[in-house]
Structure formats: structure tokens, C-alpha cells
Backbone:
């Protein structure tokens, strides 16, 4: 072996190790992430804060056994910061997936396949604001049950991925009938992951989900929540909030989702909980998450 080969043999591994040290840890994200989509890459500092919030409330066991899922997105001018716990775990979500029915109706209208007259518009609004079940079923019928699921799985949206973690799914009327099509991965009739719910809010906020007309319409229908429980109750003492929101409850399954615009910042919060006190836990989650957002706004470091 000549001297040059020997030196190269020593330097190359050292240089490789040096560059590896410069790479961010797996799961790290820039602050903020600037992707046009909401990717599942989590912000380390925000993730630490969310973990501390959960531990302080004594919820760690529920996270560990997959009965609690949370996604928190802090929206910044040029991007976002994301933290999740079981964010890609698909769970039964009761009425929360009505947000997917609303989205599919907007797509069908945008493509000229659905005319939104006054009666349908009122059904869509009531389906979201007061979670009207007959309204949701009528909207599904107008969109088409199979077409709704096809829209959710389109490559340009991918709100449900049957090769990955699932996502948003509506395979049953909001009535006493049997499910017409359960999701392929978990057999759920009304399912969601916290991550995909957060994605739909993120794109709606950015205006990258629909054309301008339908973006404005969907935002309006999701505003002014008509049921004051869970996240809405938890945020009720905070001043000057604008909320876009959809929740759901069935037996021990509790779900809520909200985009909050406030003086301390704009953020998305999603919670899916299975447990007898899930509604109260979601109320607490909203209250504590808002405090966290306020604290980070005053001390962004």
C-alpha cells in the first residue's frame, strides 16, 4: 500500500463521520418547516413540549396503549411546526369525519358534478356546526357514497392511504344502517388519524385545497361552532378567537379538531380519545395547548 492510499483510507471514514454529525437527527425539522404540504416530520422542540403536557396531565398510559392521539400544528408565515402523539394511528372518530363529507361535496361542486342550492348548503352547514346526522346522510347521498371515498383517496389529496396508515374514512351513513364499505386497513366505518385531519385544516387555511370560491365557502361552514363542549369549552375564556371546528362523540369515543386564529398565534389542534372521560380530557387539552402556544409566542426560543 502506498502512502496516498493509506492517507485516503484514514481520511474518508473520518470525513464521512464528520458529515454524518452535521446532519439533523431523524425526525428533526427546521423551525419552521416550509414544505407546501403538511408532512409528518415532527419538530423536536415542540414535540418535547407536547410530551411534557401529556405527562403533566397523567395521560402517558393512554398514549402508550394507543387510546389517545394528538396533533398540534403551529402555523408560521412561511411554514409550520408539527408535534404528534400517535398522529398516524387510525381510530374511530364518530362525527369528526363529516369534515371529509364537506370536502368531497366541495370537490364535486368545483368539478361541476354537484349544484349547491340553498337546501344543500344549509345541510352542509348544519352537518358541521351542529353535527346534524340526517343532514350528513343527505349530503353523502348527493355526493355519492363511493365517489366520496374515491375523492379522499385521489393522489392529489391522499386523505386516505390504504398502503400506509389510513386516514379519513366515511363508509357508513350517519343513521342506523349497516356500513356500506369499511376502511380496508382497520374495518372502521367512520375513521380518522390526527395527522390527516390536521392536513385538511392546514391546506384549507393555506388555500391550497380548493379554488377560491369553495375555499371561502368551506371556511365559512366550519366557522361559528354550534356546540360548546370539548375544545370549544376549553377555549371559552380566551379572548378574540376565530375557530374552524368539527368534533365527534359516540359512547367512549371522543374526537375534536379545530383551527384557532388568536392574538397569540394561529394553530391546529386535533385530539382522538377512547375513554370514559375523553370529553373532559379534550377540554383540558385545548386549554393547555393554548397556554403552550401563548408561551411559545412570547418566548419563541
Residues:
Amino acid at each position: 500500500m502506498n502512502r496516498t492510499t493509506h492517507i485516503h483510507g484514514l481520511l474518508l471514514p473520518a470525513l464521512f463521520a464528520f458529515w454524518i454529525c452535521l446532519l439533523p437527527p431523524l425526525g428533526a425539522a427546521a423551525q419552521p418547516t416550509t414544505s407546501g404540504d403538511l408532512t409528518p416530520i415532527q419538530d423536536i422542540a415542540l414535540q418535547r413540549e407536547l410530551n411534557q403536557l401529556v405527562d403533566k396531565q397523567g395521560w402517558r398510559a393512554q398514549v402508550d396503549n394507543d387510546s389517545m392521539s394528538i396533533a398540534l400544528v403551529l402555523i408560521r408565515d412561511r411554514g409550520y411546526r408539527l408535534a404528534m402523539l400517535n398522529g398516524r394511528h387510525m381510530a374511530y372518530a364518530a362525527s369528526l369525519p363529516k369534515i371529509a363529507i364537506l370536502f368531497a361535496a366541495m370537490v364535486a361542486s368545483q368539478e361541476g358534478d354537484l349544484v349547491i342550492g340553498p337546501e344543500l348548503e344549509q345541510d352542509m352547514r348544519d352537518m358541521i356546526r351542529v353535527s346534524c346526522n340526517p343532514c350528513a346522510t343527505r349530503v353523502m347521498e348527493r355526493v355519492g357514497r363511493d365517489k366520496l371515498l374515491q375523492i379522499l383517496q385521489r393522489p392529489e389529496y391522499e386523505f386516505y392511504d390504504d398502503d400506509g396508515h389510513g386516514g379519513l374514512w366515511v363508509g357508513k351513513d350517519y343513521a342506523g344502517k349497516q356500513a356500506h364499505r369499511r376502511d380496508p386497513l382497520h374495518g372502521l366505518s367512520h375513521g380518522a388519524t390526527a395527522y390527516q385531519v390536521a392536513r385538511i385544516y392546514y391546506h384549507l387555511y393555506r388555500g391550497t385545497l380548493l379554488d377560491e370560491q369553495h375555499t371561502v365557502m368551506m371556511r365559512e361552514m366550519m366557522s361559528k361552532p354550534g356546540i360548546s363542549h370539548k375544545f370549544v369549552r376549553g377555549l371559552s375564556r380566551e379572548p378574540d378567537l376565530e375557530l374552524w371546528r368539527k368534533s365527534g362523540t359516540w359512547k367512549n369515543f371522543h374526537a375534536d379538531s379545530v383551527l384557532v386564529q388568536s392574538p397569540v398565534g394561529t394553530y391546529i389542534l386535533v385530539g382522538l380519545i377512547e375513554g370514559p372521560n375523553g370529553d373532559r380530557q379534550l377540554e383540558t387539552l385545548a386549554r393547555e395547548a393554548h397556554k403552550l402556544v401563548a408561551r411559545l409566542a412570547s418566548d419563541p426560543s
